[in-house]
Write a structure and sequence with these properties.
- The chain is mainly alpha-helical and about 100 residues long.
- The chain has one domain.
- Helices cover about 90% and strands about 0% of the residues.
- It contains four helices and no strands.
- Helix 1 (about 5-25) runs antiparallel to helix 2 (about 25-50) and helix 2 runs antiparallel to helix 3.
- The protein is globular, with a radius of gyration of 13 Å.
- Keywords: Membrane, Transmembrane, Transmembrane helix.
């Protein structure tokens, strides 16, 4: 089975979590999507890049979720979600996916 890049998993968790929360009007459901994708990514980060990198990337994933809220007040909700998702995806690629080859 092909390995899904963690950059894609993390970005999907952030974008998908927001989309589910917004369109279902059920914030906890969006949070579940966010958490599930984060857990899958963290497990792969630990396996492919080591625990310290996994901790750092998981912290970044969580911080990006938090940062998207005040950023949304400045640039809008969707642009904010895409911006933080892109940042997390780029970090995941550089720190974990590129090395996993």
């Amino acid at each position: 089975m092909a390995r899904i890049p963690t950059a894609a998993i993390a970005a999907t968790g952030l974008v998908g979590g927001y989309a589910v929360a917004r369109f279902s009007k059920q914030r906890p459901l969006g949070g579940a999507v966010l958490a599930a994708a984060g857990a899958v990514a963290a497990k792969q980060w630990a396996r492919s890049a080591g625990v310290p990198t996994a901790v750092a990337l998981t912290g970044l994933y969580t911080a990006a979720f938090g940062a998207s809220h005040p950023l949304a007040k400045k640039i809008g909700a969707w642009p904010s979600v895409f911006a933080v998702s892109g940042g997390v995806a780029a970090a995941a690629y550089v720190l974990a996916d590129r090395k996993a080859g």
